Amino acid sequence: MKSSWRRDLFTVGVFAKISVRRYFRDRLAIFFTVVFPLIFLFVFGSISKGNNVSFHVGLLNQSSSAFATKFTSDTKANKLFNVDSTVTDLTTAKDRMSKSEIDATIILPPSFGVLKGGVPSGQAQILYDENNAPAAQTISSVIQGELEGVNAQLVKITPPFSVNAQSTNTKGLSKLDYTVSGLLGFSIIGLGIFGPVNYFPEMKKQGVLRRLHITPLRVWQFFVSSVLSNAVIGLFSIGIMIAVASSPLFHFKIVGNYFELGLFIILGILMIFGIGLAIGGWAKNERQAAPLSNIVVFPMMFLSGTFFPRYAMPLWLQHVSAYLPLTPVIDGIRSIATEGQHITQIGPQLGMMAIWTVIIYAIAFRVFRWE
Amino acid sequence: MSTPIVKVEKLRKSYDDKEVVKGISFEVGQGEIFGILGPNGAGKTTTLEMIETLRPIDGGTATINGIDVAKEPQKVRYMIGVQTQSTAFMDKVKLTELLEQQAAAYGEKVNTMALLKDVHLQEKASSFIESLSGGQKQRFSIAAALVHQPKIFFMDEPTTGLDPQARRNLWNLVQKINQAGKGITIILTTHYMEEAEMLCNRVAIMDDGKIVAMDTPQKLVQDLLKKGFKKKHRVEQANLEDVFIDLTGKELGRQ
Q1: ipTM of this complex
Q2: Residues on B contacting A at a C-beta cutoff of 8 Å
């Protein structure tokens, strides 16, 4: 007879192997764990690929001067502005502004650009809604700046004060870096929580777990085999996600060590899957599992930086969301993948994950029911 | 009765103040096929579940092969095989894999094809459970329950929902497993009296949480006749079920 721990691990191995095979036969599971996150990648990735800041504006050129025509085409070419070409009259413009579909309307009156004493002159108007005052301020400044540039050329004076903006030229994080690491976090949630939360109560209802309960199989063996198969499936789905993100479609670059990244992701899956095990293992049926999993998942989905980067949140919310289980996972993935940090450099994240893992599994073991 | 392998003494169980098993006692001998009969809600399943280590025992004791079920459930689990009422298994898993997994739960490796052959399912080895008929599922769940060669086999209403052929096939299988008392000891519950008469060496009839009668089926019938009981109908040598079986055949392949 094999030694007892080898027998125990043999059991775990067989269970893990069979559940991985089962996953690859399940098209629906593959859709939700691979295709679904990819759809999100395409949606959010395309949004964050573009310029970081741009204003939606209407542009009404009422002048027929050559200068106004040139100014119009210059503005349209300016990356800072996203000119809504369907705004052709003041009524539409006001309507769009009141709905915040556009931030402001730039009006070039009939007198704009008309030659006065040999040089073009005139005044551009910026029309805005109270809701969009801050954006309108910026737009005004930009237009002002452009016109001052024109003025300087026409009148040839050197202004005594000026601003000189310079890029630091170091490679910072792009919005895409935040998006991809956030979506990897979303993948881990989908796989680790939504999977078991649906699947476990189903197995209970059918009596599949009851059949295992009759055998000497212990809860820890069942948990470990589930974690193992989940880690394998998770690395598979996340691997595909990273491959697509790194493709020429998105140009996501991993500068960190792949092995460390993989190891860290496994730790993340281990922790998050514990939440799914706790909820799915506790719930007698889907009706108990669904609301509880939503309560747990939604705060993480919106506050841990899956879809919206945390830096965009008010400071107090950043402090609160820092303690959610998923936050250190997403931060850690980003630190390793895009900042090239080593796993030894992200101690705070690992520490928080360790604490959560202990808490989550302590609960999961306590509340688990076979039927 | 041969040496007792299962001993149940004054077993009790309550759910929310309602006592469903009221201090029952019985023994099952080595190699016996023992039936527990009774209407729904009589406490048959609860009794079985307590002996199977699935439910905590509120009062009394149950021992299997001398081992106390309440004190050493893990040891007992290695000795018993259980066929549950539900024949559900994980979907999208091949029959051979399901058996491999079931055996692994006991830390064992088995010849899955041989096990499937025992229940005439070798052609279905690579099928998923969802493609099996009711009778096939029932036979498969027996194979799964016996992967670790238990000493005692519990069957909870094994033929409920099966058509007559499938039921007769299952009876044959049960007798094969028992090998006329030389094989595995079997404890089963059933609603069907002819099933009990056909299979069981002894039966216990339960009603309202108590055992109201316990003996061989023949003895129970004699006792009843002694009391002067007369059946209203004249007893035929065959019944409608025999006609049905005769017309539709009972070969394994035809269900």
Answers
A1: 0.84
A2: 52-54, 74, 77-78, 80, 82, 84-86, 88-90, 92-93, 97, 100-102, 104-107, 109, 144
